């Protein structure tokens, strides 16, 4: 992955930069509250796919430019094909390779993903934040799953993510009643990691990213994988997965450093390998 890259569209871009071992991804379309065009979604997919193969990375940070995080998928841009009415089954063919793939990559990549949310996080934008490992938001941010208010059923993983985070009763409020949830409510519900005052958002995210990027990267990635596996596994299956992961992490440099630091009564200095 290049040190700095930008994939631009006519009216938006996904900007990718490096801050040490942290990959900084900015959704850059503030005039439309960072709604995602098809090309922006493709850029996210390419960026996350490259990041999964980059051994020099230790954390990922996703944020929005301007006053909002992301107002979802731009359906007008997505359907501006110029070829008339699409064939039957168009959504079934396209969406798994676009919005759904973004959610899968954020959820499964073996790097910790942090989202910083201010303003609106809507639809796909909301689910992007919920798929991250840690989402920090301003107390006055708004998380909204507006699908039924627009006349169609929820997508981009919302029916899987929301009930697992907050339970069915609150999931029904968000997905069947399309209730808007503030950042402070989202934190109280357990929908996100933390809510802070607007002036504290950047510093809070940077501290969290520094902690994660300085951690035992392989162990963190495998712990993330095991947590997700455990959501659909029995106890016996989870114990076996933990054992396999333990075998792998015991072969890392960070495991050796962790033991040495414990013996020497000092803080470990992990290199992520």
Automatic annotation (TrEMBL):
Coiled-coil region(s):
none
- Give the matching Gene3D superfamilies: 2-enoyl-CoA Hydratase, Chain A, domain 1 (3.90.226.10), Lyase 2-enoyl-coa Hydratase, Chain A, domain 2 (1.10.12.10)
What CDD domains does the record tag this protein with? crotonase-like (cd06558)
One Pfam family this chain carries?
ECH_1
Q: GO molecular function, one example?
A: isomerase activity
> Would the keyword Isomerase turn up in this protein's UniProt record?
yes
User: What are the protein's UniProt keywords?
Assistant: Isomerase
InterPro entries this protein is in?
Answer: ClpP/crotonase-like_dom_sf, Enoyl-CoA_hydra/iso, Enoyl-CoA_hydra_C
The UniProt similarity line reads: Belongs to the enoyl-CoA hydratase/isomerase family.
Any idea what this protein is called?
Answer: Enoyl-CoA hydratase/isomerase family protein
From which organism does this entry originate? Mycobacterium vicinigordonae
């Amino acid at each position: 992955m290049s040190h700095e890259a930008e994939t631009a569209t006519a009216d938006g871009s996904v900007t990718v930069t490096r801050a040490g071992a942290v990959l900084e991804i900015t959704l850059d379309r503030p005039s439309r509250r960072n709604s995602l065009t098809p090309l922006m979604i493709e850029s996210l997919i390419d960026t996350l796919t490259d990041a999964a193969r980059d051994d020099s990375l230790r954390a990922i940070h996703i944020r929005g430019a301007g006053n909002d995080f992301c107002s979802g998928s731009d359906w007008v841009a997505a359907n501006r094909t110029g070829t008339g009415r699409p064939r039957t089954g168009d959504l079934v063919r396209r969406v798994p390779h676009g919005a759904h793939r973004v959610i899968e990559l954020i959820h499964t990549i073996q790097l910790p993903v942090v989202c910083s949310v201010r303003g609106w996080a809507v639809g796909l934008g909301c689910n992007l934040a919920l798929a991250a490992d840690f989402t920090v938001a301003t107390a006055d941010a708004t998380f909204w799953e507006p699908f039924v208010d627009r006349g169609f059923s929820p997508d981009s993983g919302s029916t899987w993510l929301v009930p697992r985070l907050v339970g069915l009763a609150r999931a029904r409020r968000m997905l069947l009643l399309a209730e808007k949830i503030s950042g402070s409510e989202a934190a109280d519900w357990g929908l996100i990691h933390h809510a802070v005052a607007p002036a504290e958002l950047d510093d809070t995210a940077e501290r969290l990213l520094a902690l994660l990027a300085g951690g035992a990267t392989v162990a963190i990635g495998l712990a993330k994988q095991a947590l997700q596996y455990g959501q659909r596994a029995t106890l016996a299956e989870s114990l076996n997965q933990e054992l396999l992961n333990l075998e792998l992490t015991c072969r890392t440099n960070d495991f050796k450093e962790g033991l040495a630091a414990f013996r020497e009564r000092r803080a470990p200095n992990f290199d992520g390998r």
